[in-house]
Amino acid sequence: MTRRLRSLVLLGLVLAAVASVPGCSPGGSEAPAAATLYTCPMHPQIVQDHPGDCPICGMRLVPAERAGAERRDDGPPETRAIVEPGEEGVRLAGVRTVEVRRDTIATALHTAGTVVPDETRIRHLHTKVEGWVERLFVNFTGQEVRAGAPVLTIYSPELLASQEEYLRTRETVARLSPSTLPEVRRAADELLAAARRRLELLDVPAATIAALEAGGPPQRTVTLSAPVSGFVTVKNVVEGHRVEPGEELLQVTDLSRVWIEASLFEADIPRVRLGQRAAVTLPFDPARTLEGRVVFLSPTLDPATRTLPVRIEFPNPGLALRPGMFAEVSLDVAATEGLVIPDSAVIDTGREQVVFVESIDSSFVPRSVTLGARGNGVVQVLKGLGRGEKVAVQANFLLDSESRLRAAFAGAQSAPAAAPPPAPAAAGGGHPGHAP
Length: 436
Description:
Blueprint (H helix, E strand, L loop, with lengths): L2 H17 L18 E2 L7 E2 L13 E2 L22 H8 L2 E4 L1 E5 L2 E10 L4 E5 L4 E6 L7 E2 L4 E6 L1 H20 L5 H20 L4 H8 L7 E5 L4 E6 L6 E2 L4 E6 L3 E9 L11 E6 L2 E13 L9 E9 L10 E7 L3 E7 L4 E2 L4 E6 L5 E12 L2 E6 L6 E5 L1 H18 L23
Antiparallel strand pairs: 1-2, 1-3, 4-25, 5-20, 6-15, 6-19, 7-14, 8-10, 8-13, 9-12, 10-11, 12-14, 15-18, 16-17, 16-19, 17-18, 20-24, 21-22, 22-23, 22-25, 23-24
């Protein structure tokens, strides 16, 4: 066989081999077609190039391309794809669905707070004169006192002088009372009233003033009484202490009503108003509940926590709530009506909320939804679902994992392959039919 004949035979064999490859032509103008891959709906790690059954669960393998069928037209591919587990896969995975229904959500807003004294029921005990504490009836911080009960006895030269002034004024009025001139009698009465008023302004007890009016002698010491009932929360004095005008001696706090200071997240602020009813469950007695109302909403947010301070007033029978306690508060908010689904149906990614909707062919389609109010284990759906549709409420996290894997796998399969490098030109530009 001549050299030219051997070259022609070799060229014919090469062209026949190229033509036998699907999607290829001798000119290389078409890219090779991708082979169909099959995978298990429940075990996406099982991938093979021919149909069959899954070696793990025995399910029928499906084409992998169908996993990435759902795409957005206006953006990048979805991170989730349709899941087609089939009836057997739904049974094995334990998937359960419920219908989207219309219902009323009687929501309650829960928050935690701290019990603090009612600031309007705190009283400070001061003296308006200089003096010395000769006897103290309150011996320790936390002692309970009653309104009008003696607290301390003080000796004050100013108080003693004011009592003597009042007695002298009474004697003068007694001498001038027989006068026939009405102006003289009126001036005497006004002078006596002014002396009595001075004693009252210096916090001299009414009993001491009454004793002076009855003709009794001036008292060397004056006993001060508790202005309100409550507990001594601050004690800055001991027996023999020298006091100055305006100095705080004791602080008495009435704990018959207390506040619970709590915080609200920004999204919950529109749901709370002044006067709104609230309830607190006692930590040591869950069967007992106290009812109160919202009395204050802060005009500013806490910059550290980005929450709104709120103050709730509660009655405090039997000192059930003690300052410093932590308490769980429940605020009643208005009922909301709309389409609802169970909380368990929602997968919250942080950027969106996703549910899996069952279609008529038993496949599950991921869908983004917009949610509203929550309460009693259900959540309101504002957008994304229709009444009567079925959503997965059990094993939906398995569906989510499968959906993500399918989308990732389909995205990798659909990525365009790199173009093959051009074939090098024949040396010397010769015709392939010519022998080198």
